[in-house]
């Protein structure tokens, strides 16, 4: 149940309980007032009857006085026969009545005061109280719903902004939520402050990564050149291999920093996907040149993409499949979807659960690595508006699914 419904339900329940309690109190007070007044009138009438009673059976006229009235309530009759005087509310010939009785010389004298008017007055008051209570409950619930809706709307705004921040947009801000200075406003201010602090820290880390990569690039280039001058042999090959690995890592770091900054805007074009991938693989434009990868075009489609960035996505996916999986590596085109599948052990569980993370490949490692390849592929896919999904194939092996956007709408249409 949403917060708005919870608040509305609590307000409705409390309002109903309050209305019920007030109605009962008013009803009891009204009944007590009318009953006491009728009892007082009946006893006064009984005293007048007893004063005028001469013992001959003649009664003072009025007040429905009678001797041995058969409609007298039994408990009141028993009380009078014991020589005591009392009153009681009971049925009468024309509706409810207030009876008063007393015993004298073995006889039971009684008077009856009609209570029908009092009963109708009490019923009318009860109806008025019920209508007033219903209206007050309705107004209170409506006011509570409006207040709860305002609170809920402000919280939903804060939640949407928080989710936007979680997706990586650290420029998103909740901003002021009205003129209220309550707990919701404090929460919004805290989220905005957190977002600003995260952005500042992330920008600092990105700048540090880019600076380190730039500083390493020049000495690594010189070191790679110097390694080419070493005499042939196994030690020389090991040195060259490690220097190339360090150079590739530096280039990956530079590419990650460029993706984080978003400085390089994509150049989108509407192109048929199958021929484009065939051309990229055949031309060796990818980092692995398509070597060892089989292209299957099930159904072709025109997509909106940047060929250079698509090449980088495909290059990193193929490099990941060939480095950590086992052949054959199959690239399949189905409409606007490209899948890259190997036949290795599959992706680590941490990658499937949390997505690619820099410098982490998970406990179920697929041959080691620094974890930047999938991060770069994901960054380029996001830049061209594509969606990269990672999973394990039911028959074994890792499966990367790239869903590309369709052709752009014609601006002149």
UniProtKB/TrEMBL annotation:
It is found in: Cell membrane. It is an enzyme of class 2 (transferase). It catalyses: ATP + protein L-histidine = ADP + protein N-phospho-L-histidine. Pfam families: HAMP, HATPase_c, HisKA. Keywords: Kinase, Membrane, Phosphoprotein, Transferase, Transmembrane, Transmembrane helix, Two-component regulatory system. GO terms for molecular function: kinase activity. The keyword Phosphoprotein applies. Its main location: membrane. Coiled coil: none annotated. Residues 211-408 form the Histidine kinase domain. Its EC number is 2.7.13.3. Residues 149-203 form the HAMP domain. This is histidine kinase.
